[in-house]
């Protein structure tokens, strides 16, 4: 459904950027633990020690305990110097910003990271659907998918191999909907998305 060079590259870089935000920044000692560490342990697939380590890095990079969208875009864009990752980073930020308040808390970040790194196939597909469902109404439209695809192609840059044609994002969306929109109503539901992806994989 997604060209292999886009799927693997984008997913791996998304995960590596997410982990980089914390693992590569363990420069300070823990001053205090996040509240509800046991609760986070129950909500994620991380151990207490891993959560403490993630928290150290998060607080070191973001002393306020929050990551705003501009900071997120700046960090994410460093991993795609050949393209423009701004729009894709915006969509990704919204997928992590669970309560839609314009900032990512440690809890938001670590819950999303747990799904990306250690979630089941269904959990990862739910997370991906949430990313593609830009307005969060429970459906993926062609317009939403086109915005996502254009942002991925922009992020990969003009010098990808094989070369990307201008009409490639639109063609990709059409193929996506041919496979995913099973009842041909012009939108893709979470059920259609998960069922089709599981059959393909």
TrEMBL record:
PANTHER family: CALCIUM BINDING PROTEINS, KV CHANNEL INTERACTING PROTEIN 3A, CALSENILIN ISOFORM X1. It comes from the Eukaryota. Keywords: Calcium, Lipoprotein, Metal-binding, Myristate, Repeat. The gene is kcnip3a. One of its GO terms (biological process) is regulation of potassium ion transmembrane transport. The lineage of its organism: Eukaryota, Metazoa, Chordata, Craniata, Vertebrata. One of its GO terms (molecular function) is DNA-binding transcription repressor activity, RNA polymerase II-specific. One of its GO terms (cellular component) is voltage-gated potassium channel complex. May be involved in the calcium-dependent regulation of rhodopsin phosphorylation. Binds three calcium ions. This is Calsenilin-like. Pfam families: EF-hand_7, EF-hand_8. The keyword Calcium applies. Residues 84-119, 120-155, 168-201 form the EF-hand domain. PROSITE patterns: EF_HAND_1, EF_HAND_2. CDD domains: EFh. Belongs to the recoverin family.
